[in-house]
Amino acid sequence: MAALINDPRNELRDRKPILIDRIDGIDSDVLSASILPNEDGFISINDDKSIRIWLKRDTGKYWPSVCHYTDRVPTCMFHQPDSRRLFIALDNGSILEYAVGEDYNKITLIKQYQAHMARITNVYNSVEHDWILSTSKDKYFSFHSTENAQRVGSYSINSVATCLVFDTSSKHCFVGDDNGKITFLKLTESGCEFIASLNRHESSISCLAWDVDRKFLFSGSFDKTVICWDIGGKKGITYDLEGHRDRIQSIIFMNKTHQLISGSEDNFIVIWDMDAKRQENPQWHESDSCEYCKKPFIWNLKGMWEQKTVGKRQHHCRRCGAAICDDCSKSRVSIPMLGHEFEVRICCECGPKITNAEKTPLAQFYDCKHSIVSMSYDEKRKFLLTVGLDRVVKVWDMKSIIV
After folding, report:
1. pLDDT class for 14, splitting at 50, 70, 90?
2. What is the three-class DSSP state of 322?
3. E strand segments, 327-369
4. Could you tell me how far CA 34 lies from the centroid of its own chain?
5. Pairing assessment for the beta strands 363-367 and 340-346 based on DSSP bridges
């Protein structure tokens, strides 16, 4: 009798996040929020120019212990809990640095950085290097010293710079833009050094994350995909992750468990198993005619004339990359090993060849019941905070999923 082998991933797919708190009734749009570690609370920035620190009271309700207003609309923020510093970026290009009180009942302005000439899109503080890094709609990446607020260096991006991620040990910085390109930089005490450009996305890059151990870069985009870039391998290998039906707004990588969380405007969070065996997507073949039935494609005027037929529309098999017509690619199947968690087009040759291993799901999907614009994660407690377009903030217990 054959032994029955249980795949632990099957058990995980039956588990769900537990909603432990829902904060609604907020009187303005929440642009971003950061969960407080080891505390039932979070910091939010709102489009009414407010910075709020929310704490859970004895009644079980969340109320702001701080509600501070700035002169301009805050656009993004970075909270450094160890140093109790809060960096708030504004729509006029300035960055405000605050000291957060030990009881979270006050914030005190420490200094101001004149970082950019336009709206700031992302901000990050590197305590190890005493830098504050930022991207802006002025098409620049900049970084400043937190000791004297002076600019250390900057780099001109050919498009609006939308997001960044920084690797502390190598001083490598990756900057995404609204043309779908990632600029790879090396930061030094005297400025920036350009290393490479990474091009795969078809739309604006909204978020980036970094795998410290394996040197994987993750990029989320408005094209509804996440791409994993193997930077450490130095071979140009990429893995596509397709599991959303709307724009991706936030991604978080958990270095301890090698899982990636992606949040989208489609209401779903997706948990990706990045320890699973994955393959690169095949290169798409170039051909003037279908590789199987040999019927010409619509631009092949010579082939249409010779065969006395109307040209076919070209498609590609997502498994082998063959250039095919619709008649030769009727099958639809999910191929998670190639990153396709939804059903995609495959050719008539690949249909009978696809294995069960290729079709095994490598991601878990959870409906958060609101369109996600921002996420924050407390790795110690395994709490996930989601911010929605509905002005609702939710806190989820992820212990049953993040293993």
Report:
1. low
2. coil
3. 331-335, 340-346, 363-367
4. 16
5. unpaired
